[in-house]
Amino acid sequence: MGLDDIRRRIAAAETRAGRASGSVTLIAVSKVQPEDRVTAVLDAGQRVFGENYVQEAQGKWPGWRARWPGVDLHLIGPLQSNKAKAAVELFDAIHTLDRMTLARKLAQQIDQQGRSPQLFIQVNTGDEPQKAGILADELPVFLSSCRDLGLSPQGLMCIPPEDEDPLPHFRLLRRLAQEHGLPNLSMGMSADFETAIAEGATHVRVGSAIFGARSYA
């Protein structure tokens, strides 16, 4: 395990799927990882990182970005509407657009700041009541409403149910993206990113397989 191993596995999965080399973006999920692990991965040349919490990212990344230029920062955790301003300031991509109240806040901040992070709509492919994301049949209306606000979502994101085969969920997300002309698919994590790549993932979110197990202490 580690960054080099994950990069090799991504390259092999691209080849098996008949996809161009480099067509998949690796998002190194650095949430709650100790500083020495993250800086080692930065030193190794990784420049795309994912964080779950705006406040945690605010405390870490401005300093790291000053030391390692060219970092692309992705928000992959739930975003509270009252954190929209900070999220637009800090992140280059937001993967968890999932309700109109948030869409309106993001549209307002994007307009005010003149900064436009790449947006992914989170789809709750497993219809799990406890999980964020819009339902698949809500996507056409939600996407249209986002576009009416001046937003331009570029992709979809999903987190399949933990106890289910992820393959049908990846296929559903791919079909929805194709139907709506969205080029990007954020799907696949440490345990299933190769399956996701075979199904068209453009962004995979890998944390523990790069950094080691997280400690929430």
UniProtKB/TrEMBL annotation:
Keywords: Pyridoxal phosphate. The keyword Ubl conjugation does not apply. It comes from the Bacteria. Residues 3-214 form the Alanine racemase N-terminal domain. The modification N6-(pyridoxal phosphate)lysine is found at K31. CDD domains: PLPDE_III_YBL036c_like. It holds the Pfam family Ala_racemase_N. PANTHER family: PROLINE SYNTHETASE CO-TRANSCRIBED BACTERIAL HOMOLOG PROTEIN (PTHR10146), PYRIDOXAL PHOSPHATE HOMEOSTASIS PROTEIN (PTHR10146:SF14). Pyridoxal 5'-phosphate (PLP)-binding protein, which is involved in PLP homeostasis. Belongs to the pyridoxal phosphate-binding protein YggS/PROSC family. This is Pyridoxal phosphate homeostasis protein. It comes from Paracoccus benzoatiresistens. The lineage of its organism: Bacteria, Pseudomonadati, Pseudomonadota, Alphaproteobacteria, Rhodobacterales.
